[in-house]
Amino acid sequence: MKRSTPSVENPEHPRLSKRMGELGLCSRREADRWITSGWVKVDGEVVSTLGVRVPPNARIEIDPAAREHQSGQVTILLHKPVGYVSGQAEDGYEPAIVLIRPENRWTADPSPIEFQRAHLRGLAPAGRLDIDSTGLLVLTQDGRVAKQLIGEDSSIEKEYLVRVEGSLSPDGMRRLQHGLTLDGVKLKPAQVSWQNEHQLRFVLRQGRKRQIRRMCELVGLFVTGLKRVRSGNIPLGGLPVGKWRYMRPDEKF
Question: CA 113 from chain center: how many Å?
Fold first, then answer.
């Protein structure tokens, strides 16, 4: 039997959707969907109303239908070209998701999954790449993947190759590696090294807006090209520009 509100609700307790996210059951957006679908029980009772608060030690049970829905979700890896925005269309530029069409699928994609229009439903970028940047962009229907890549506690490495102009002093290199502040926030340590005389390699564990370009500006460098070549354990590899493939079940970030 469904209930709209719990009998006693403590304002100090977390909302059910937040608690489900904390437990790693799903993303908060998925939690809302599961709750309104009647797929979530708290201490043996179905809770179908959003915003309900629950004790941290509450027993949360998930209907198998939710797991079936979750297992059917896809994650897509796209080699984003320059000229496309990661998320919503802006300033006349198209979002990268418009490239997820059957004709743009990489012919060497090893996944047996057949493309379906339903795979575009709820598909969203897990992270961003600026309009003038290229490389690996992850789009997913799975909130767990999004949380892993861009959640507050994410520690997934992202690797970039960055073409620069200008001169970098030893002190500038040290500041790139650890010592810069953006928007009043001290940046986490980064791995930065020369790939060749015109190109730096960055490995970051965070992704503030236009972070690498702004970091370079602070030490007197101008970025002329930026490409993301890895997210966690998944490299861009041989995926051609503008092409996409499905993430395989055996691949993990």
Answer: 21
Amino acid at 227: K
- Give the residue numbers marked as catalytic: 130
Q: How far apart are CA 81 and CA 97, in angstroms?
A: 12
Domains of the chain listed by start with CATH number: 2-70 (3.10.290.10), 72-153+234-246 (3.30.70.580), 158-231 (3.30.70.1560)
Q: Which residues pair with 192 in a beta bridge?
A: 202
- Whether 133 contacts 228, CB under 8 Å: yes
Q: Are 218 and 111 in contact (CB under 8 A)?
A: no
Whole-angstrom Cα distance, residue 218 to residue 178? 13
Q: Could you list the pLDDT tens digit for every one of the 253 residues in the chain?
A: 444 444 557 888 999 998 988 888 887 777 888 898 898 999 999 999 999 999 989 999 998 888 766 667 899 999 999 999 998 877 788 999 999 999 999 999 999 999 988 899 889 999 889 999 999 999 999 888 888 888 777 889 999 999 999 999 999 999 999 989 999 999 999 999 999 999 999 999 988 889 999 999 999 999 999 999 999 999 999 999 999 999 998 899 9
